[in-house]
Amino acid sequence: MLNEKQIVQYLTDLESEQVERTVSTNNLDKFCEAICAFSNDVANTKAPGYLFIGVADNGRLSGLRATDKLLKDLANIRSDGNILPQPAMSVYKQFFPEGDVIVIEVKPALFPPVRYKGKIWIRVGARKAVANESEERILMEKRSIQGATFDLRPCAEASLSDLKTDLFNGYYLPRAVDRKILEQDKRPVEYKLASLRFYDIKSHCPTHAGILLFGINPEYYYFGAYIQYVRFEGKDVASKVVNEHKFTGDLVTVLGKLDTFIETTIEQKHPVFVSALREETRRSYPHLAIRELLMNAVMHRDYESNAPVKFYEFADRLEVVNPGGLYGNARPENFPTVNDYRNPILAEAMKVLGYVNRFNRGILSVQQELTENGNGKAIFDFDKMTVFGVTVYNAVELLRDGLGEKVGEKVGEKVGEKVGEKVTQNQEVILTAIKGNSRITAKELAIIVGISDRKIEENIRKLKELGKIKRIGPAKGGHWEIVD
């Protein structure tokens, strides 16, 4: 983060290749192109680039007064999915008497090339431009295999013949790369794949992401690379199986099938008795919320595990369990406000394909949609180190059982009373968070559960009364203990 003196030095150095200035506050394309160019660092400076907003080309300040909304909108550029892979950037402002300066600081990408709306922007001296083929190759060669995520590493046993190149060329590529760039690109398909991190030129083989997305038979290399759907007649796995299906193959095709399956089979609209003269149609599960949960399972799972994603439907609920617990910076105490990507290349591809609308916001949207539909909040299970689970209750069954005074109101609380020994759903989330971090604070719990500090205190008091938790030590420096 630059201090005031450093900012002044950059403003007066009009020839710096690491700086771009603008007085505009709403030219999103210009901002994103600059961020993309600094991320690619084609000159290999290994130094951050800086976009100064509120500064003219001659270094003079425009008199800008930065609002919180403007700063928030600029910070959202990082995760809106138009710059892929996501840039490493920070946004802050510096006050000057002549006007504020907003600084967007961009670090060089670990895995270039970075694209904005399908175009690779780079710095050429003090200006930016679209990369040509030679410059794109330089960026591709900058990638480091050392420490790379699993999906970026080469699949040494595979070859180009293991990929559905027609699927890549005809379906994926036009969605990922700008049309005009594609028309001029006459390179072999290996280089086109490599530019999107699906092929490793040095090793002469596809990456794991390439096989998972476009492979003729991904399961040959990753035994658990499929989604196992089972529908049970009752409320546990011992009950009769009434339907099952295995979603397997390349993810480009599988994701489309899975999306259609959720809409046509899982959502299930039912007539529900409201009064003697009226019935209403209710959805068991909202399509977009369940799709988001399943897409997250596919995106974040551990593909080095031989276990599949389990998608189980019971009479009263859905359960999704995928191999691999929370990853990287994500922890039970900060989920879902903090996210991290075990498979960033897959995440990028799913954004390109339209299965991820925006990064880091999915779970919050899921909880809102489930609550509005009458399902109550999804319950996340962090207890098992090697898997991640989520449970969603059937809104129609809850309503028929009289567990909701109105659909979407108080259902989450009533569910807990039915299934958790008078522990509400919010309290189940609190217990899960405490199991993951015994020193978690009430404020952190409020963020995780999505309720006020006062409501958190009420729930903690209730859990103490029920004998579920107890406090060891003082309020500051003590810890929670789960009572079995």
UniProtKB/TrEMBL annotation:
Ranges of residues in domain Schlafen AlbA-2: 15-129
First and last residue of the signal peptide: none
Regions that span the bilayer: none
SUPFAM superfamilies named in the record: Winged helix' DNA-binding domain
Superkingdom of origin organism: Bacteria
Protein known as: Transcriptional regulator
PANTHER family: GLPR-RELATED TRANSCRIPTIONAL REPRESSOR, SCHLAFEN ALBA-2 DOMAIN-CONTAINING PROTEIN
Pfam families: HATPase_c_4, HTH_24, SLFN_AlbA_2
